Every structure is written in C-alpha cells, then in structure tokens.
C-alpha cells in the first residue's frame, strides 16, 4: 500500500532479474494503466495559468454529445490504448502553451506499452510468452514515463487529502477543543485556519473537477479578474470566490449546507477572538476535511495523528511510546510495513512545513512586503541552490506573491535529472559509438554541512525536529570523494592513496575546544548539558528542539576560555591522506566507506566517514555493460567475405581471433571469460566483438 511508482518499478526489475518476463509484462501493463489514470485524473490540478485551464476546458467540450461525454467516460475507466489518442490530441491543444506533462516521447512510450500488453495480456496456455526483449522494453517505457513526467515519488493510492493538511487540521481542532483560552490563542487558530482553508477549497475543487458541469467551469474560467494575481490575493484565494459564486451543493456528501457554511466564513467582517468567533472557521475545516478524506484510509489518518502527537510530545520517541505506536497500528488493522510508511511521511511533512515556517519568519523579519520582484527571486534561487525540496520552494513563491515562472527557476537552478536510459536495445545501439579515453583527474567533493535530507533523518532515528540527537554535535560529517578508476584497475583491483582536506582534532586543546574546564563552574542555564530546549511555533503546534546553550556556548561550563587556534570548535582543517582498497569488479557510482576518516566531531566527538565513489573512466577501446565488454572491430569487405585472422585488444593485452568467412556487419562474436570479474565472485564476463564493415 502507498508504494510509489519508483518502488513499483524496482519490484518489476527484481522480476526481470529472476527472468520472470511474463510477470513483468502482465503486472507492468497493469501498473502503466494505473499510471495513465493517475496522469489524466491529476492533469487539471497541474494547470498553472488561466490560458491552460481554458484550453483544457475546450478539450473537454470537444467530446461532449447529447448522449454524454466520451472523454469523461474514459476518465471513469481509463485504458492504455484509448489514452494514446487522447494524449495526442491534448498535445495538439497545448502546442503553443508548454506543459510539463505533455512530451513527444511519452506518446511513443504509451504506444509501445499498449502494443506489448495487447500481444500478451490475453494469451492462453500454449501461446507465445513474453521474452527478454519484451520485458526489457516495458521496463524502459515505465522508466521513461515516470522520469520524464517526474512521477517517481507519486503513488496511485490516495488518502484524498494531503497528509500535511490533515495533520494541521488535527492540531487546529485540538487547540480549539483543549488549549485555547486567551485572545492570542483564538487569534492563532484563525490565522492557521486562514492559511489552509483556501488550499483545501482548491483540493476539493480539483477532486470534484470532472463532476462539475461544463457550463459552471465555463463561467469560472471566463472570469479573468478572478484568476489575476495581485498583492492582495493569489490563485488559492480564487477558490474561495469560486465556492461563493457557484452552487456546488450537489457535489458534497455531507448533510451540512456547505454553501451556507462557506458563505458564513467569507462574510466575516469583524473578527471575534473567542470560541463563538472561531466556530465558522473550525466548522468549515471539519466539512472540507470530511469531504476530501478517502473513507478507505481513515484509519491511516488516525494513525498519522497518533504518530505526530508522539513525536512532538517530548521531542523524542522512547521505547514505551514505540510499543504504544505498534499497538495502535495493530488496533487500527494497519500492517507494520504500511505503519512504517505512514511514520516516514508524517516526519517528512512536518519537517517540510517547519522549514517553510522558519523561512517565512526570516523573510518577514526583513520586511518582505517592501521587497521587489528581483529580491524575491533571489530568495527563491538561494533556496533552490541549497537543495530545498521543490514543494517548499513553490509554497514559498506563493507566500511571496512571486509573479515570475517558478518552474523555470527550478529547472534552471535546480539539480538537472539525467534523461531515462534504455536498458538493452538502446545500449546495443550505442555500442558502435566508441569513445576516446579521457585524462583522469581526481575530483574531491567535501562538505562540512550537516546532511539534512530525509534519508539521513531516518538513519539517525527519525532525527531533527523529532528528538534524534544533533548529528553535528554528536558526530563529524561524512565526506564524499569521487575516485576515477580505469577499466584495467577495475579488472585487477587497486589500492589508491587519496589526498583530501578534512577537519581533524585540534592538537592544541586535544579536541576539547578549551583548556580550563577544571577552573570553571557548571552552567546554570543548561545544568552542564550544553543544550537548552527551544519552542518553535508552527501550524502543527509548539515543536521543541534542542539548541546550543547561549550562556555557555555549548560547553556546559561558565566563563570558558575558547581555544584560539580552533576557536572553541576542537577541530581544524588539515590535509589528509587515506589509503583505499577498491576490489576487482566495482562499478561506476559504487560507494566504498572508510570508517572514521571523515570530518572530526565537534569538541572531541567521533569522526564521520569517508565515502569514496567510483568514477569509471571511459576506455579508448571498450564499452562496459555489467561484467561484459564490447569492442568495435572494423573490417574491409574483402576481409569479411574471405575471413581473416585479426588481433583484438583485451584488458592488459591482446589476443588473436579468427573471423569466419561471410561475416555480416553488426555480427557479434563472443570471447568467453575475457570481460571483467564479477564483484565478490570468481566469475568473469565475456568480450563481445562487433563487426563493422568499412
């Protein structure tokens, strides 16, 4: 449950490795069909401009007849074959208006998937079964679609409501029911509600998009003023007006008069900071959340709230709470794998929201309202360059009322993804492109910054804001180095001496950061721990985080004299040399860890690790695929016709080879055991000699 498309792709790869080609084609075909459904159902919510919305509405209307709408019938029951026709027509409608999901090679990919599935989906026992090439082609198609459309982390399963919105709603309602007493408490509830109500209305609009009558959508998308962005309102606020002006009552499942509740919310002229004044906000929130929530997954959302409360309770999860979570999941009929996925997602969304909250605070402190567009653009570019998650950057752009193209900034300054690569057939076509050897240069990439990505948070015990220990104060950071290796070195294995810079223990203070601990008294603020607890206000409530004590600068003692050379850090940057053994058979991109050879920890803490990434140097003769090598042998037509004795290069030498008479261009001859060794094995790959007539 809740497997991403990338995880589904990995499962298919495992089937392929086990030579279950029939399973790859049958299961892969179903997944691609669910992927097609996902694309078309979500498409309306990806339309960023009024022109795009109007174009898509015109596309819908094209299929309207007296008997109904063929396109809407397809949306209800999407199939890969029919999707190709609609995709082609949609591309034509958007020929002048670029859209991130409409790309020429996607049509070709869908075409291939449909052909393969039709060939084998309905075959009976005794009929031909899919082979290696069929399964490989389907995997390639799947990879192209999810990477080109950036759907790797999307999932066909849906909670109905974004998890972050549900968790924020639960915090607002908790504060309303149990916490709020003073005027400032009621003000905060109203402020938080105003932040997410327009978003929930937008989600609701697109979740019911295909149910809304065409004439209503015609009216909505003809009002240009409604969608214009200015300093006072953004696109999300437009949805408040939509629900105020259009009758949507028949689209709601709750018995409440939703339109009246929305009108009451919109017509609040003067805020009243008490329970009665806040009620219109919480009532509308309850209705919107109920409407959006997928009933099938209500237990998952209940569990998510439990997880949130546990993590935020004391800024950590102890053993007792871990047992309670396991028991809670069991009582809600949630298996351990799904429970773990929910825990991961809860951590991710709270971490993202907190990051955005801190950024917004920082901007507001600098009088954001007076900033020019160019200054706002600089803020966004800086966030992108620092690797801030894309959804946070987009949220930030909306908060700044940024009028430029945020997607252009993301593509220009973000990490560019490599285009999908074909696995077997395309690789064999590329074999005739023999590239020349390049001079190897060792590239050393080091970083002393704390790793803030989600995987690191998980590795350190659900870190960061949830109470895991501060990785920078407990342990030094890891360093990553790219080490170029030739195929000859990979064939035999090699030991490399790597020279690089790292933070090492200060020799003056022996890594302590000071010399006068004995003469100092324990800090009165932190009681010697060097840390104090700081409360951060967020949409989820107060989040406690441990920070360095300002009174003692983290030493735990008062009036400590910092070591001058290292400025109290207990470590200094120095040149270092590491001897790294690369075994035979390693591949490009593989990582070898040298424990304890990374940056020294702060003030005597353990050092991080040195991560050595293999960077395979392109060979002048060979192209590598796994353990196999491919060589392009050029022959004259007379040599090919009569046969020839030739000398062929191998790694660390040459061999003589007899070419049979009548050989054709493109013919592949195998030399067994002349490839690369398999990692941690005695097996070796083969050398394939491809004949090219010149």
Please give a handful of descriptors for the protein shown:
single chain; 694 residues; alpha+beta; four-stranded mixed β-sheet; 25 helices; flat
Explain this structure.
The chain has 694 residues and is of the alpha+beta class. It is built from 25 helices and 16 strands. The model is unreliable at 230-234, 357-373 and 415-473 (pLDDT under 50).
Strands, helices and their partners?
Blueprint: H1 5-17, H2 21-42, H3 50-62, E1 64-65, E2 68-69, H4 70-76, H5 80-93, H6 104-120, H7 132-148, H8 163-179, H9 183-207, H10 214-222, H11 224-227, H12 235-245, H13 258-266, H14 275-292, H15 298-313, H16 319-331, H17 336-365, H18 373-385, H19 390-399, H20 406-413, H21 425-430, E3 443-445, H22 454-459, H23 471-474, E4 479-485, H24 487-492, E5 494-505, E6 531-538, E7 541-548, E8 571-582, E9 591-594, E10 610-616, E11 622-625, E12 628-635, H25 637-642, E13 644-650, E14 653-659, E15 668-671, E16 687-693
Parallel strand pairs: 4-10, 12-16
Antiparallel strand pairs: 1-2, 3-4, 5-8, 6-7, 9-10, 11-12, 13-14, 15-16
Helix pairs in contact: 1-2, 1-7, 2-6, 2-7, 3-10, 5-6, 6-7, 8-9, 8-14, 8-15, 9-12, 9-14, 13-14, 15-16, 15-17, 17-19, 18-19, 18-20
Proportion of residues in β-strands: 5-15%
Number of helices: 25
Separation of termini?
A: 56 Å
Give the overall average pLDDT.
77
Q: Could you give a short account of the major beta sheet?
A: 4 strands, mixed
Short structural summary:
The chain is built from 25 helices and 16 strands. The chain is of the alpha+beta class.
């Amino acid at each position: 449950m809740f497997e991403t498309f990338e995880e589904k792709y990995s499962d298919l790869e495992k089937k392929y490795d086990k030579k279950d080609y029939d399973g790859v084609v049958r299961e892969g075909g179903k997944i691609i069909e669910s992927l097609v459904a996902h694309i078309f159902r979500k498409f309306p919510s990806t339309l960023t401009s009024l022109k795009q919305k109007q174009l898509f509405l015109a596309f819908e209307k094209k299929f309207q007849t007296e008997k109904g709408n063929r396109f809407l019938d397809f949306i209800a029951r999407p199939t890969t074959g029919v999707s190709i026709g609609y995709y082609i027509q949609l591309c034509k409608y958007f020929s002048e208006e670029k859209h991130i999901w409409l790309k020429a090679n996607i049509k070709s990919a869908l075409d291939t998937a449909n052909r393969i599935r039709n060939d084998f989906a309905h075959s009976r026992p005794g009929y031909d079964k899919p082979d290696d090439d069929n399964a490989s082609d389907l995997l390639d198609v799947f990879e192209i679609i999810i990477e080109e459309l950036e759907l790797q982390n999307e999932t066909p399963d849906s909670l109905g409501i974004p998890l972050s919105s549900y968790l924020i709603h639960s915090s607002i309602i908790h504060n309303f029911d149990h916490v709020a007493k003073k005027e400032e408490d009621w003000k905060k509830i109203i402020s938080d509600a105003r932040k997410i109500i327009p978003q929930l209305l937008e989600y609701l609009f697109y979740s019911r998009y295909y149910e809304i009558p065409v004439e209503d959508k015609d009216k909505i998308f003809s009002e240009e003023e409604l969608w214009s962005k200015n300093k006072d309102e953004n696109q999300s606020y437009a949805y408040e007006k939509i629900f105020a002006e259009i009758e949507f009552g028949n689209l709601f499942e709750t018995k409440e008069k939703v339109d009246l509740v929305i009108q009451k919310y919109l017509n609040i002229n003067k805020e009243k900071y008490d329970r009665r004044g806040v009620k219109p906000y919480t009532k509308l929130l309850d209705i919107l959340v109920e409407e959006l929530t997928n009933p099938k997954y209500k237990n998952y959302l209940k569990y998510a709230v439990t997880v949130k409360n546990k993590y935020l309770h004391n800024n950590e999860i102890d053993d007792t709470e871990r047992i309670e979570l396991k028991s809670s999941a069991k009582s809600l009929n949630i298996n351990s794998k799904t429970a773990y996925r929910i825990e991961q997602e809860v951590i991710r969304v709270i971490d993202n929201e907190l990051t955005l909250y801190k950024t917004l605070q920082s901007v507001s402190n600098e009088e954001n309202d007076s900033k020019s567009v160019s200054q706002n653009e600089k803020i966004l570019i800086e966030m992108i360059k620092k690797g801030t998650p894309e959804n946070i950057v987009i949220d930030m752009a909306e908060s700044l009322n940024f009028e430029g193209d945020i997607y252009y900034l993301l593509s220009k300054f973000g990490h560019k993804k490599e285009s999908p690569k074909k696995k077997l057939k395309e690789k064999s076509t590329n074999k005739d492109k023999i590239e020349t050897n390049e001079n190897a240069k060792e590239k050393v990439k080091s970083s002393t910054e704390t790793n803030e990505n989600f995987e690191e948070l998980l590795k350190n015990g659900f870190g960061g804001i949830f109470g895991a220990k501060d990785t920078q104060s407990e342990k030094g950071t890891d360093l990553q180095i790219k080490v170029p290796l030739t195929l000859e070195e990979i064939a035999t294995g090699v030991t490399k001496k790597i020279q690089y810079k790292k933070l090492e223990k200060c020799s003056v203070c022996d890594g302590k950061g000071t010399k006068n601990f004995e003469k100092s008294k324990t800090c009165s603020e932190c009681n010697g721990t060097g840390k104090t607890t700081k409360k951060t206000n967020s949409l989820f409530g107060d989040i406690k985080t441990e920070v360095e004590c300002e009174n003692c600068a983290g030493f735990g003692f008062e009036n400590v004299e910092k070591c001058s050379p290292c400025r109290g850090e207990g470590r200094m940057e120095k040149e270092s040399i590491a001897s790294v053994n690369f075994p035979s058979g390693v591949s490009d991109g593989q990582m070898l860890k040298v424990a304890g050879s990374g940056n020294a920890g702060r003030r005597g803490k353990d050092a991080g690790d040195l991560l050595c990434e293999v960077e395979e140097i392109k060979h002048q003769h060979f192209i590598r695929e796994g353990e196999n090598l491919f060589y392009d042998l050029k022959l004259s037509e007379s040599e090919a016709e009569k046969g020839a004795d030739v000398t062929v290069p191998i790694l660390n030498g040459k061999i003589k080879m007899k070419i049979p008479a009548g050989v054709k261009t493109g013919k592949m001859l195998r030399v067994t055991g002349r490839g690369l060794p398999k990692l941690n094995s005695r097996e070796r790959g083969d050398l394939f000699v491809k004949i090219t007539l010149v």
